[in-house]
Amino acid sequence: MELPPQTRMRSRQFSLRTKLILSFLAVIAVGGLISLIIGRRLVRNTLISQAQAKVNHDLASAWMVFNEKLQDIKDTVSLTAARESLHEAIRNNRTEVLLRYLNRVRTQYGLDILTLTDSRGRVIVRTRNPGVIGDDQSEDEVVRRALQPNVLASPQIVPREELLREGQDLAEQAYLEFIPTPKAAPRPENEETSGLMLKAAATVIDESNEPLGVLYGGILLNRKYEIVDRVKEIVFKEEKYKGRETGTATIFQGDLRISTNATDQEGKRAIGTRLSEEVKKAVLDKGWAWNDRAFVVRDWYITAYEPIKNIDEEIIGILYVGTLEKPYIDTANRLMFTFTVIALLCAVFLLIVLYFATARIIKPLQSIVLATQEIARGGLDHRVEVQSRDEIGDLAASFNQMTERLKAANEKLVEWGTTLEKKVKERTRELEEMQAHLIQSEKLAGLGKLAAGIAHEINNPLGGILIYSHLLLEDAKKDTVQYDNLKKIVKETTRCKNIVKGLLEFARPKEPEMTPTDINDTVKRALSIFERQALFQNIEIRLDFSELPKIVSDAAQLQQVFTNIIVNAAEAMEGNGVLTIKTYVNCEAECIRVEFTDTGHGIKEEYRSRLFEPFFTTKEVGKGTGLGLAISYGIVQKHQGSIEVRSEVGKGSTFTVILPLNRKNADE
Ligand SMILES: Nc1ncnc2c1ncn2[C@@H]1O[C@H](COP(=O)(O)OP(=O)(O)O)[C@@H](O)[C@H]1O
Ligand SMILES: [Mg+2]
Q: What's the CA-to-centroid distance between 610 and ligand 1, angstroms?
């Protein structure tokens, strides 16, 4: 059962396994990518928000340092102002003593300025610049408030002329030329001349509560690094990242760095550089705190900025701390890298597992595919061997079941085919036989009519001849030529009469007289006639009779049939041989079979179809009439039976008379 090529397997694009692995790979890739992106954001955000929280906290520390310094100045100024000896000297106008004493206080406590005014705000002692006195300081916000008995401290912008009054060097210290800074907001000027000062003032009051004047002092923050360095020391310690200090603190005057430990490219303190525009807008212009990343001098920092306000709550500068963002980013990247490597390893491991897992799934499928191919080639005995107890196992089982059914159906088909063939052959043979019978019957009927006509015409004259020749024979003397001739006439005429009788018998057979008959008996009676005849003396007769039921038939006619067949057999054996007569019931065909088997010369093939023709004989003239089998045929046919002939030339022949056990109605 070879299949046409178009129904064979189509060529595959991808194997099932490749598809499975590819789809898993796609899931892993997409999932991995998404988790990488989310993970990266998460790690960064967590790390940076932690850093931001720390920086916010650091700014609070910076404020503490800043305010502590302010408080120190305030304490120094107020304590000095409360000194009895100071009151004394003021009351007695001892300027020399005051100058000496206050100057000592100033240097001792590290103040940049310490100046004393009278009760109207006019300077009487200026310790840093003793030559310049008498100017009016009552307009100064801090001094003005101290004129009403008060002690106060505040950051303050000090203009250049004021700085010059307090000391030429202070003005110089404050002066800063702007250094061009990326991302800074543009400004019309390019220098700063004023300074940012932590300033405290206290009213000098004597025992009688009489204000004697105002003592004020301060520290200029420009180019002074005490506060920022201390913040750094407290907050960031010695933290370094790749040789760079990570923590920075800065004091801004406006947007200008006046005190810082953030460094520029050359590693110098980045004073004179300015704040990025973005932060300036938020902190200086709007007064917000800034807690975010910001670009500081040359790098990104995690930062916290808060405005510095003067006594009138005006924003005059900014206090800042920040830590380099890079270490956090690097840590985040390192984390992400590790994470990615682990994820990749997991993916590889998963793929390996998948590779073997798919093999387990695919292998049974492959064996099913092989099985289908085998079955398509016609190997219906092939079975799939899959032991797995899952869907594939079920598939294999159903498949085997299907093949089993297919095989059974196929076998049945083949069987039907052969049966059909056999049946067709049988029917064909039957038809042929029937046709042969018909032809034979027609032929016989035609010949019968002819023979009957002739016989009838000849019978009467023959009778006359026979009577007259007998009369003549009675009158003739014995042992004369006439007597012998007459005897020959009588003999030959008798023969003719017999032939004519046979002809008539054949042509107009008598209706059989049906009675229940034992066929074995009938055969024996036929045999008994020949027992003493010369022809049978050297013939061995073997009888093989079975028990037979009686059948309704004409015993006399059947005996004639058997006689004819027995004589023919004896003649074929030329009086020497074995004649076997066998009778039995053929149950299947519901008939009795009487077989006569001789060891005679047999029948040539070309004669076989003509055996039952009347006058067909192979015997020499005067010996056979060729009517024996023709008459027998007629008789058996009347009994609804038939005669079968088998023969082999040189070995012998078998004539079988077949008689039905139950005859059908004549009508049928
Ligand atoms: N047992 C037999 N063996 C060989 N040939 C036979 C046998 N029976 C019949 N025949 C042949 O059939 C022919 C016809 O037989 P039959 O009708 O009895 O006529 P006849 O015996 O008068 O020739 C015979 O001439 C003979 O050739
Ligand atoms: Mg004969």
A: 10
